[in-house]
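Exercise 7b. Backbone tokens:
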């Protein structure tokens, strides 16, 4: 894997261990402790009791000591969970850990209205880069018939917990914005991340004219390279994945050619995946191919993965090839089997 992803994983491991011991030590942490760890103690100290009461919406806030009240008001200003039950104490602990993570791919919470503008800004402000030597070499995976497609990762992924993480891929940013609003309208909550990728896949003649230019690889094979993105969701519980699947199937998956009642850009086969088994997902193998600086991801059925790995290694023995089990939505699993719906 490239250095930045290795570093990200090391940071993630360190944070997991740190948060585990941190949670044990501070589950009943005071509001003052939380404010200090978040770096807002000086601000809290400027509040009068009257100002803190005007900001705070806590029940029984009058019973808090003045330092605790001022700290609670500060936490509310920055959006921290502070109600005070055991569950919320855990949520506050997780908030502190996540707040201090060096996570450039994290955008915010699903119900934040500013999320829609931020995601569009992320999409529009990154300029296209010339293909690297690695990107040009990867084209031979399709040119030689080794694979029919892959995703070249171009920005880091967010540091989300694996058991609550879903990765959703698409190419239309308007679809992303409508999807975020759809999920919020269904009552789902999640931390949201955003990453860029270049999707490369074999062009099929029956697709007709595409907006992207085609790259001739010889042997009758033509390549499409498109700028795409992954939306990342970290749900509060693993059970939320089931509701996510139902929402996508109902409003973001096309089943007939002229189907109405769907959000913009609905695909025949939406593409999303989970890092562990969950209802509504089927097993697949994700293969990470890296030259040490960049990484491409390929997906295959588990029984086809060994032959694919061998072919990739023969194409360039210097590349690292790392397979891992992953679970994809059922429509995309049918695509891996050759279907189109």
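Sequence design result:
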């Amino acid at each position: 894997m490239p250095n930045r992803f290795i570093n990200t994983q090391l940071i993630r491991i360190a944070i997991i261990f740190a948060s585990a011991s941190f949670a044990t030590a501070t589950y009943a942490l005071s509001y003052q402790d939380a404010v200090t760890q978040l770096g807002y103690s000086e601000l809290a100290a400027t509040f009068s009791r009257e100002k803190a009461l005007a900001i705070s919406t806590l029940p029984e806030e009058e019973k808090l000591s003045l330092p605790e009240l001022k700290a609670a008001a500060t936490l509310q200003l920055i959006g921290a969970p502070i109600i005070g039950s055991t569950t919320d104490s855990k949520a506050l602990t997780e908030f502190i850990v996540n707040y201090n993570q060096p996570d450039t791919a994290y955008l915010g919470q699903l119900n934040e209205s500013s999320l829609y503008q931020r995601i569009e800004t992320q999409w529009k402000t990154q300029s296209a880069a010339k293909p690297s030597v690695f990107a040009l070499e990867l084209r031979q995976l399709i040119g030689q018939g080794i694979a029919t497609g892959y995703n070249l990762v171009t920005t880091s992924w967010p540091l989300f917990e694996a058991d609550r993480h879903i990765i959703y891929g698409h190419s239309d940013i308007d679809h992303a914005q409508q999807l975020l609003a759809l999920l919020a309208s269904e009552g789902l909550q999640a931390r949201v991340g955003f990453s860029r990728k270049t999707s490369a896949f074999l062009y099929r003649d029956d697709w007709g004219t595409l907006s992207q230019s085609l790259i001739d690889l010889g042997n009758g094979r033509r390549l499409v390279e498109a700028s795409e993105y992954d939306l990342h969701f970290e749900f509060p519980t693993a059970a939320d994945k089931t509701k996510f699947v139902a929402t996508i199937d109902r409003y973001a998956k096309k089943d007939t050619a002229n189907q109405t009642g769907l959000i913009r850009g609905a695909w025949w086969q939406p593409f999303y995946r989970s890092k562990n088994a969950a209802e509504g997902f089927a097993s697949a193998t994700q293969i990470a191919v890296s030259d040490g600086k960049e990484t491409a991801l390929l997906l295959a059925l588990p029984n086809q993965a060994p032959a694919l790995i061998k072919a990739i290694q023969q194409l360039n023995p210097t590349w690292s090839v790392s397979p891992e089990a992953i679970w994809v939505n059922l429509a995309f699993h049918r695509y891996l089997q050759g279907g189109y719906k």
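Instructor comment: The beta strands are 106-109, 149-153, 165-170, 191-202, 214-218, 221-234, 271-274, 281-290, 295-300, 320-329. The longest helix spans residues 3-26.
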